[in-house]
Amino acid sequence: GRVICAQDRQHRQVAIKLMKIDSKEYRILRVLSKEPLLFSAESFGCVIPPIDFLEMGEHCFVVMPRWGDSATWPWFSTVREALDYMRSLLKGLCFLHERLIAHRDIKLSNILMNHIGRFEQIHKNPFRKQLRHEGRALYALLDFDCAVMFPRTSTPAERRLPGRESFIFGGNYSYDTAQGELDYDPFAYDVAALGQLFCENFQQLAPITHFLAPFIDRMMTRDIAKRYTAAQALLVFDDFCSRLSPWQLDTAPPPIDDRCDPENHETWARLPEDFVQQWSSHREPKLPLSTKVLRWICMQPLGYRVVQWARRICAVFTARPSLKAYGRSV
Questions:
Q1: The whole model's pTM is what?
Q2: Are residues 152 and 27 in the same domain?
Q3: Per-residue b/e over 152-181, b at no fewer than 16 CB within 10 Å?
Q4: Domain span at 41
Q5: Average pLDDT, stretch 88-95?
Q6: pLDDT the model gives residue 12
Q7: Does 207 have pLDDT greater than 90?
Q8: Whether residues 38 and 86 fall in one domain
Q9: Are 112 and 49 in contact (CB under 8 A)?
């Protein structure tokens, strides 16, 4: 709708997006345009950078490099290639969070690859396979329609958003607000959403790379205090990957299991018993009945409002600080 493709004077493929100058997305892109890491081939931050701004009154045409979508197609030839993809997304999320930018809409369609191909031909496209094999494939996050950026002077308590704002149509999601929570941490939400994307697309790799089971569970855990931050997840991921053998990295990864339920997957059941016992502290427990009931109520007509009303009453009596006004995002 608001994005068109073109070619600039240097014959580079670009995408041009129209947006309002007073929008949060515009302000975020202005900040990203000043980040040297997004223009570095050696230390690319895995976020699509804006390269020009054409302002016209209250609107602006933002020019960005044109990359290709459907970044997981064709499917990866080796586990190493799949892990490179996962690491790029962790790196991109870490880059944003370090600058207090919460993406809030992590999904496959918002992940691009540095190769453009016709949609109907991507499954058989040999150039993507060649880029991956040569280690030249790059992946990056984009689309800041729903993103929020907080001031450097803000406190963690001020970096929370109303629970109702977590529901974004067509986006990936976390279950952090599925029980009618009044507010939520958008940064922790991002990590859980990316963990869910990993679970849905890569949990079948766990029998080859065992660490993915505890790693993904810790990204998605319902105990948010124990959940990795983006920076922690990247460090742990790199540490785990450094311990993999060449045969593990060069093994062909199984295809996506379309039946995967992020909260009821059987990843651990396919792992050695000694490994399961060693990492049992990272294993996410089954969903409690009380949580299932709360979610069921919230999915009913008016159910979500009723649960939030009850939570507000409880919050008044407990004097929760999170009931203070929101709006510190910029």
A1: 0.91
A2: no
A3: eeeeeebbbbebeebeeeebbbbbbbbbbb
A4: 3-65
A5: 97
A6: 85
A7: yes
A8: no
A9: no
Two tokens, residue 27: 């302000």
CA dihedral 191, 196, 202, 203 (to 10 degrees): 110
Task: Give domain status of residue 34, yes or no.
Answer: yes
Residue 109: what residue type?
S
Dihedral of alpha carbons 300, 306, 312, 317, sign: negative
Contact of 176 with 166, CB cutoff 8 Å: yes
Domain-embedded: residue 303: no
Write down the residue that tokens 């660490």 correspond to: 211
Query: Cα–Cα distances in Å, from 139 out to 65, 147, 251, 265?
Result: 13, 19, 21, 27
pLDDT confidence tier of residue 321, bands split at 50, 70 and 90: low
Q: What is the pLDDT of residues 111-140, one digit of tens each?
A: 999 988 766 666 777 888 899 999 999 999
